[in-house]
Amino acid sequence: xxxxxxxxxxxxxxxxxxxxxxxxxxxxxxxxxxxxxxxxxxxxxxxxxxxxxxxxxxxxxxxxxxxxxxxxxxxxxxxxxxxxxxxxxxxxxxxxxxxxxxxxxxxxxxxxxxxxxxxxxxxxxxxxxxxxxxxxxxxxxxxxxxxxxxxxxxxxxxxxxxxxxxxxxxxxxxxxxxxxxxxxxxxxxxxxxxxxxxxxxxxxxxxxxxxxxxxxxxxxxxxxxxxxxxxxxxxxxxxxxxxxxxxxxxxxxxxxxxxxxxxxxxxxxxxxxxxxxxxxxxxxxxxxxxxxxxxxxxxxxxxxxxxxxxxxxxxxxxxxxxxxxxxxxxxxxxxxxxxxxxxxxxxxxxxxxxxxxxxxxxxxxxxxxxxxxxxxxxxxxxxxxxxxxxxxxxxxxxxxxxxxxxxxxxxxxxxxxxxxxxxxxxxxxxxxxxxxxxxxxxxxxxxxxxxxxxxxxxxxxxxxxxxxxxxxxxxxxxxxxxxxxxxxxxxxxxxxxxxxxxxxxxxxxxxxxxxxxxxxxxxxxxxxxxxxxxxxxxxxxxxxxxxxxxxxxxxxxxxxxxxxxxxxxxxxxxxxxxxxxxxxxxxxxxxxxxxxxxxxxxxxxxxxxxxxxxxxxxxxxxxxxxxxxxxxxxxxxxxxxxxxxxxxxxxxxxxxxxxxxxxxxxxxxxxxxxxxxxxxxxxxxxxxxxxxxxxxxxxxxxxxxxxxxxxxxxxxxxxxxxxxxxxxxxxxxxxxxxxxx
Length: 741
Known about the structure:
Layout: H1 34-45, H2 49-61, H3 64-92, H4 98-106, H5 108-139, H6 149-169, H7 171-201, H8 219-233, H9 249-254, H10 288-299, H11 303-315, H12 318-346, H13 352-360, H14 362-393, H15 403-423, H16 425-455, H17 473-486, H18 503-532, H19 535-540, H20 544-552, H21 559-588, E1 599-600, H22 607-622, H23 628-632, H24 634-654, H25 667-686, H26 690-701, H27 703-711, H28 717-730, E2 732-733
Antiparallel strand pairs: 1-2
Helix pairs in contact: 1-7, 2-3, 2-8, 3-8, 4-5, 5-6, 6-15, 10-16, 10-18, 10-21, 11-12, 11-17, 12-17, 12-18, 12-24, 12-25, 13-14, 13-24, 14-15, 14-21, 14-22, 14-24, 14-26, 15-21, 15-22, 16-18, 16-21, 17-25, 21-22, 24-25
């Protein structure tokens, strides 16, 4: 959407990016038919009014008969208003309701006064009241102390954001949501009506026989009764605000449903869409800066704020602890270099999946997707969102530590992540850059604070060196698990390689620069922790960074939980963008559900795979605590890393001549593979646990799904119908791979 700016005498020498845009075609999209138009009216009218207004109407009318008269005449008044606006809308023919009418009749000043009064106060406060009302009812399911406002306001704001997303994204989506909720609320009222009729049939009539006894005829009371009734009928005019988005608005506005005979209309033809799917590829939006941001932002999550405790406990000394942190950075760098060569051979998104598929074929690749995408990455996303919600709950007035509010916030975060990553890769990359800068800023505060304390002579545990070092293999392996959890994400840019500009240069550089930056920051951060806190404080702290903040920052320690939240969100954003590409790549190869390989025709993002990732993550979150199976599946991830290092060696012989291959010294993948083998084998040999067997069974159990559903492609006919409707709803189409490495 680059605007062309030309002077009156534009010279031919001036050349630059020019886009001719026919703004006459930029209009609101007509997506509201008769069904969705009726749904907008009915759905807008039936809100909370019918559930709360009857009390006020009966009180002000004084009798059952007068009450029913007011309700009936209120309907007549709404119908008269609707017919009046039918004529007005046929004259103005623009969206805006009362504004368009006043503008057409009296000019801009009365129209502006209407907008000022209605939009600045009435409509916005009504929306706020609606969201707070929903939050109020929702809070009845939560364990809150008394009736605190902050949690309700958080839920209300989340609802506003969700409403903004759905109404901004697509009128068609908003209309379909309106149809669904209209059907739901009509269903609820039908239950009430049916229940009442059943009671009447059983002889329970209560106040009905009293008729007009006690009727109030005072004008002010009748007016107040009409206020309550018309509050319940509010919304009768809503379709006129959307008239430019209504298909065949004349028919809709007149409520004239015409049924044509077959001979009155042209021959029916099925809707046809011609789409050149050869151009449906992922969009290249990631440069070197955003690539580094994806690596650094994905790595720095909650790990550096909580892992130091586990590393120090398993190593036993400051010296060994820092050695493990440093060698963990080296391991990440070796892995990154190994995957640099692998990605230059596969040249497709999907990370380990693409490597295993290229080397060993579909079965091992499917087992990887089954194990990692159905358990590890989705549970990691759930844990990240719950961690952020946990820190956020420290600012709210909750009784104890109830789970429901945290899960609500966590699911809202998942929805927000899904929207940003589906909407635009560029937007997701910019968010990643911002949160990467924010989390680096927070860690720099910790580093500088520690260096200042060291300068003041506070060194705490640093002088102890290697005293008390633990050399047991299983303990060292567990220490590496904690460290590599904190370094997790070093490989993320390889999942997005098809969306990287100049991938031969920017892919490897993003990984190497990102890992080096994180290594320096992590080591200095650990030195800061160990300089300020004693060993016992580290062992007893549930969140090391918070304890450090209390010791060094004092009253400003609130900076730390906010920094951790920003850090975790950035990590979740990077993880969401990369992990969803595993399913995308597998589906495109026919090794997963094919629909997940589709790309949005407007945004060029793999929307179905992102939504699937979010749904599985939400399911994990609703389970409460992640099961022990998930905790122990981390060892399978290192088994797959080792398998990929083996792939690097196999592909050297399998594909000998590849001009695009970036060769690394052969010792790098060998050393990386041996290190991965140690991390997998050491805990099993020295401390075997039944959960490791369960995890292995789960991974291999994926073959039970693979052969019938993937290999033989057995699926019922109705499933194809679901795919078709989902494709229309999400506006997605099959994608094509273009080698631009």
